[in-house]
Amino acid sequence: MTKVNREIVVSEALDLLDEVGLDAVSTRRLAKRLGVEQPSLYWYFRTKRDLLAAMAEAAMAPHATAPLPTLGDDWRDWFLDNTRSLRRTLLMRRDGARLHAGSTPVGDLARIRHKMDFLVASGVPERDAQMAMLAAGRFTVGSVLEEQADSGDDSDPPADMPVIDHEAAFEAGLTLIVDGLAHRTAQPPTARKPDIEGWNTVPDRN
Question: What pTM value is reported for the model?
Fold first, then answer.
């Protein structure tokens, strides 16, 4: 019998994800892959949802351990690099965006706070920084969802349908977000539109 621990279960589950896709990942298939009885997996994860959350967290490790910004860094360059890092990480795993979007992220609040403090110290209004981080995160996940869905479609597109360059489209959208944030940052506070009532979300995935 294979020696199993929590880390091995998650690692093998991610390898299974790459092989069969998110819809086909099951505790039954994972147990068979590990050479253990299916009920033994409940020792590590009480539900499949718990397993998927752990998989999502592990899959995001390359982005979650990326260097944090420091004072003196250009906030625009950092914002671009940070969002690109998120995209690269989501693309590392088959259905990576779906796995991430379907999880309940715990997030490293200290890292998030550091990123927010950096943007504010760089002159970005805190509310605008929050909304820009949230918008960039959701834009990135949505872009990768479309890209990964497109890569799994073997059918030929209609003759009059232009081929989408996913990376170029992502870069164009990201540039619009950064340019918009830079424009708002350059305006005095009284010139900016009021906050949208009820938008108190703090970004936890970016």
Answer: 0.85
The mean pLDDT of 159-187, rounded to a whole number, is 88
**Tens digits of residue pLDDT in 71-121:** 899 999 999 999 999 999 999 999 999 999 977 656 678 899 999 999 999
Structure tokens belonging to residue 63: 């982005």
Report all structural domains of the chain as residue ranges with CATH numbers, in order of start. 6-59 (1.10.10.60), 61-191 (1.10.357.10)
